[in-house]
């Protein structure tokens, strides 16, 4: 399949985790599929998938939310990549990032996993780190709160006011990587906010 992109939002399954910081990647998938009014369907790769296009006549998008827990996301991602014949350079993983301030989106290809177990598992399953990441900043926990607890908490009331804009920005970044390439997307999303 020529220009097929696999876009994966990392998170944890089920209502208990739906609104947590760790699931911001899956919130971005909901936004991307929602923009195209495309429902998610169960896929045999242990994921929910929405198949659509960037725009009519444009690249095909496979928007996916693994049904597995975050730390074992690699299996569903690798299975989907195999199923759709998608090379790692056509895979975009969207995930939460503690080391980036809330309300900030950062983009990169390759490099380390930065302690993110979901990204680590995807890299292991794909056999490479050379895939694009849309890193959605959730910031570090205040005080002495354990980061492991922080990521499983829902966003604060204050953060929820800005969250739709952050999710929209991250979805825009995904679309721009597909349309214009990583460098153009970085130039736009890494620029200081006016």
Automatic annotation (TrEMBL):
Site described as Discriminates between blocked and unblocked aminoacyl-tRNA, positions?
12
Top-level taxon in the UniProt lineage = Bacteria
- Tell me, what is an example of a GO biological process annotation in this record? rescue of stalled ribosome
Spans through the membrane: none
Which residues does the Swiss-Prot or TrEMBL record annotate as the active site? 22 (proton acceptor)
Coiled coil region boundaries: none
User: Site described as Stabilizes the basic form of H active site to accept a proton, positions?
Assistant: 96
For this protein, what reaction is catalysed? an N-acyl-L-alpha-aminoacyl-tRNA + H2O = an N-acyl-L-amino acid + a tRNA + H(+)
Q: Which compartments is it annotated to reside in?
A: Cytoplasm
EC identifiers of the protein: 3.1.1.29
Any single GO molecular-function term of the entry would be: tRNA binding
Primary site of residence? cytoplasm
Q: Which SUPFAM superfamilies match?
A: Peptidyl-tRNA hydrolase-like (SSF53178)
Q: Give the signal peptide as a residue range, or say none if absent.
A: none
Q: Indicate which residues the UniProt annotation says bind tRNA.
A: 17, 69, 71, 117
Q: Which keywords appear in this protein's UniProt record, sorted alphabetically?
A: Cytoplasm, Hydrolase, RNA-binding, tRNA-binding
Q: Which GO terms describe its cellular component?
A: cytoplasm
Q: What does this protein do?
A: Catalyzes the release of premature peptidyl moieties from peptidyl-tRNA molecules trapped in stalled 50S ribosomal subunits, and thus maintains levels of free tRNAs and 50S ribosomes.
**What does the subunit comment say?**
Monomer.
Q: Which HAMAP family match?
A: Pept_tRNA_hydro_bact (MF_00083)
> Which family, according to UniProt?
Belongs to the PTH family.
What is the protein name for this chain?
Answer: Peptidyl-tRNA hydrolase
Gene name, please?
A: pth
């Amino acid at each position: 399949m020529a220009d097929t992109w696999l876009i994966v939002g990392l998170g944890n399954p089920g209502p208990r985790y739906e609104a947590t910081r760790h699931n911001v990647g899956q919130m971005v998938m909901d936004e991307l599929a929602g923009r195209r009014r495309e429902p998610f369907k169960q896929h045999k790769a242990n994921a929910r998938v929405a198949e659509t296009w960037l725009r009519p006549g444009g690249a095909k998008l496979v928007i996916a939310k693994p049904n597995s827990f975050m730390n074992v996301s690699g299996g569903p991602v690798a299975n989907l990549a195999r199923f759709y014949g998608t090379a790692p350079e056509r895979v975009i993983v969207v995930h939460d990032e503690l080391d980036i301030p809330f309300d900030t989106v950062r983009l990169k290809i390759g490099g380390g996993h930065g302690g993110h177990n979901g990204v680590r598992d995807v890299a292991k399953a794909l056999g490479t780190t050379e895939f694009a990441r849309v890193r959605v900043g959730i910031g570090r926990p205040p005080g002495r709160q354990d980061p492991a607890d922080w990521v499983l908490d829902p966003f604060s009331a204050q953060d929820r006011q800005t969250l739709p804009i952050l999710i929209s920005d991250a979805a825009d970044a995904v679309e721009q990587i597909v349309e214009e390439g990583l460098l153009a997307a970085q130039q736009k999303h890494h620029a200081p906010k006016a």
